[in-house]
Amino acid sequence: MSFPFQANVHPDTFDRLVEYLRSVVERFPDERTGDSTYSMTDASLGAFSVFFTQSPSFLGFQRNLQVTKGCNNALTLFGIGQIPTDNHIRNLLDPVPPSAVSPVFAAVVEALHAGGQLEAYRSISGDLLVAMDGTQYFSSTKIHCSQCSVTEHSNGTITYAHSVVTPVIVAPGNPRVLPLEPEFITPQDGHKKQDCENAAAKRWLGQFGARYRPLGITILGDDLYCKQPLCEAIRREGLIFIQVCKPDSHKTLYEWVAGLAATGDLQTLTIKRRQGKRRYTDSYRFVNQVPLRDGDDALKVNWCELTTTRDDDKVVYKNAFATNHTITAANVAEVVRAGRARWKVENENNNTLKTKGYHLSHNFGHGKQHLSVLLDLLDAGYQCIRQFLPRKTFFDDLRALTRYLYFDGWEALMAFMIKGLELEAPDTS
């Protein structure tokens, strides 16, 4: 399923996105046998509107607007014919599997690739970097369901939680991230062991690795991901990895590193640089083809380390990575730079969803942040306004305007904001 437009700047990208979303949610399964007051489409777009506007009260405001003005923005901005209640949204969407929204992610990447937008994300060896990380978005000692992960504590209490692995396309120096299909950490049929982050990551690779392989993919992860079974799963999918590699969890590898350092067979590179008033020294150590673990079947990986010291001899950064990119003096800095971009999955994706208005932990909507990122790349009016307004101010204004005023559509709303800010309207001819 593809977007109904090419991936270049449009003045009506909002409307086209809503049109596309409608085509996706119209296929959602409807398990009702009785009351059908609200359509699945209205319930789905209602959930999306709450998430996109970052306002749990958006639909309530639009019901009030309909009463006072005889019109509402839920219809004109999101195509919601009849505004559903929160309870109807929860009841209607609860049976819909997460896989139902997977086409959204694939179509976004397809559109961005076709329009050349992904080139800004290319990194080591021309690859796209996909950072993977797990995050918990619900926890309770009382509320639980059959999909919860269960932790039994030594004091006899039990914690129920929902967690998810969130793969995200990142790039060093690029503030935007592009989320891919999430993989939820849930009890698996036929498995006695509790589901875990690594198992979820393997499922994601098996399901989506082949889809994204033609784009050229390097998987990034923290030390938890730097285990032989997961690294082998990445290789089986024809992908590359750069994983954080700590001494405490990779004793055999670091014994090899120490031995090679003692014999002078460990390669090094030193780069001195100035940043502001300070001088820094980046000291790299690297070697190819060392065992990731003990045993005859150990996977051979390439290892590198960066230690950055300030001119007062204070160590300000130290970390190491295992990869199947061949490491040389010419690319070791680039390998490390790519590996360090892994933090963006936490800071610029998971933390954004939890703390920047999307309320992931409150769980009234997941997965649509991708479309907000797309607007940042493709919508002319949105780009114009965001050059003037920071993200938080933009959404604060969006909530206030749609609470009190009625707009014929997204283009009218963007034009109103551009005029009010006395900005020059973008040329989209």
Summarize the structure.
With 429 residues, the protein is of the alpha+beta class.
Residues in helices, as a percent range: 25-40%
Overall average pLDDT? 86
Parts with pLDDT < 50 across at least 5 consecutive residues: 1-5, 352-372
The CATH class of the largest domain, by name, is Alpha Beta
List the helices and strands and how they pair.
Layout: H1 13-25, H2 40-53, H3 58-69, H4 73-78, H5 86-93, H6 102-114, E1 128-131, E2 134-140, E3 149-152, E4 158-165, E5 168-170, E6 178-179, E7 183-185, H7 197-212, E8 217-221, H8 228-236, E9 240-244, H9 251-262, E10 267-275, E11 278-291, E12 300-310, E13 315-323, H10 332-340, H11 344-355, H12 369-378, H13 380-386, H14 391-404, H15 410-420
Parallel strand pairs: 1-8, 8-9
Antiparallel strand pairs: 1-5, 2-4, 3-4, 4-7, 5-6, 9-13, 10-11, 11-12, 12-13
Helix pairs in contact: 1-2, 2-5, 3-14, 12-13, 13-15
Considering the chains and any ligands shown, give keywords for the structure.
429 residues, 15 helices, 20% strand, 9-stranded mixed sheet, 4-stranded antiparallel sheet, Transposase Inhibitor Protein From Tn5, Chain A, domain 1, alpha+beta, 13 strands, globular, disordered N terminus
Question: Could you explain how this protein is built, in words?
Answer:
The chain has 429 residues and is an alpha+beta fold. The chain has 2 domains: 1-115 and 379-429, no CATH class; 116-347, Transposase Inhibitor Protein From Tn5, Chain A, domain 1. It is built from 15 helices and 13 strands. The strands form 2 sheets. The chain has a 9-stranded mixed sheet, sandwiched between helices. Strands 2, 3, 4 and 7 form a 4-stranded antiparallel sheet that branches. A hairpin with a 5-residue loop joins β3 and β4. α2 packs across α5, α12 (369-378) crosses α13 and α13 (380-386) runs parallel beside α15. The longest helix has 16 residues, at 197-212. It starts with 12 loop residues before the first helix and ends in a 9-residue tail after the last helix. Residues 1-5 and 352-372 have low confidence and may be disordered.
